[in-house]
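Hi support team,

I've been running sequence recovery on a batch of backbones for a student project. Most finish fine, but this one hangs at about 90% for roughly twenty minutes before it completes. I'm not sure whether the input is malformed or the queue is just slow. I've pasted the structure tokens below so you can try to reproduce it. Let me know if you need the job ID as well.

Thanks,
M.K.
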């Protein structure tokens, strides 16, 4: 059975890899007998409107070709529908694709795998996080890491990841805890002094930092990682362990699980899937089976 699928492309992802990756991905789908149309927006709002129009028009699948930022946009178009999402991961972080076990920065392999999955009906329902009117697939970040993003986004120099390295150093110099108010499900409000609080539907953010290593996007729950008030020395000692997920064994780190999380702290911005969401307070919910995905 053939169908038309829609490639949702970010031409600037991975320093131009998005545009280049669309061709081998499209070739894999056409080889499997699918018609392919491509959607490229003039900006984020236009891209989302075009993706939603493709879903409303009955496309057989929406395939995001780019990084986590484009996947985040794609989720806004497909969440709550029966249109499956595929991901050809060619961005910098690729944490959503990593959580699904999809190929990273190999568009031909990813396209072939997704085409096979679509042909064989290998589609599964996964949970999403929802904060306000926004869906997210990986992690909602707040505190120290969101302050780093805030600072990095304000910097005009240097370009690329280097400015975020400088932003980390600047935020370390200004390190202080944030007075959080946290409520899990219908429990009591907890007041904690914390360096950061991350709410994970998936395990990682920032290109493989496993901040919520036990998070499972199919268990109906969110993992909440709380890093308590700690010194610069402690934070620098614990930080490398995030890539292995072993930071959760440190006494300054606690992990909770809940279907609903209320999060408040003054002067703190939240980021979801690496994209700015808005200031706290926020209520975050896990929505079971909110998205259909193509994959292994």
């Amino acid at each position: 059975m053939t169908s038309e699928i829609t490639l949702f492309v970010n031409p600037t992802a991975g320093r131009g890899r998005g545009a280049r990756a669309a061709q081998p991905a499209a070739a894999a789908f056409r080889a499997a007998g699918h018609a392919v149309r491509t959607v490229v927006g003039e900006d984020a709002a236009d891209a989302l409107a075009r993706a939603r129009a493709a879903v409303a028009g009955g496309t057989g699948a929406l395939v995001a070709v780019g990084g986590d930022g484009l996947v985040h946009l794609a989720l806004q178009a497909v969440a709550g529908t029966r249109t499956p999402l595929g991901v050809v991961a060619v961005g910098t972080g690729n944490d959503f694709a990593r959580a699904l076990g999809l190929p990273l920065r190999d568009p031909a392999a990813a396209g072939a795998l997704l085409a096979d999955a679509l042909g064989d009906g290998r589609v599964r329902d996964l949970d999403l996080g929802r904060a306000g009117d926004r869906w997210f697939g990986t992690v909602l970040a707040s505190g120290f890491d969101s302050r780093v993003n805030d600072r990095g986004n304000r910097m005009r120099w240097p370009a690329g990841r280097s400015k975020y390295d400088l932003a980390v150093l600047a935020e370390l110099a200004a390190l202080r805890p944030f007075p959080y108010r946290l409520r899990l499900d219908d429990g009591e409000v907890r007041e904690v002094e914390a360096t950061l609080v991350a709410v994970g539907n998936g395990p990682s953010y920032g290109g493989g930092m496993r901040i919520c290593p036990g998070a499972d996007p199919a268990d109906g729950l969110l993992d909440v990682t709380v890093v308590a008030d700690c010194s610069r020395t402690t934070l620098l000692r614990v930080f490398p362990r995030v890539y292995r997920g072993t930071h959760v064994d440190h006494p300054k780190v606690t992990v909770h699980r809940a279907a609903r999380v209320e999060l408040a702290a003054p002067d703190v911005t939240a980021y979801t899937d690496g994209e700015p969401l808005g200031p706290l307070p926020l209520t975050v919910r896990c929505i079971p089976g909110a998205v259909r995905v193509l994959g292994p």
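--
Follow-up from support: It reproduced on our side and the slowdown came from queue contention, not your input. The chain has eight helices and 15 strands. No action needed from you.
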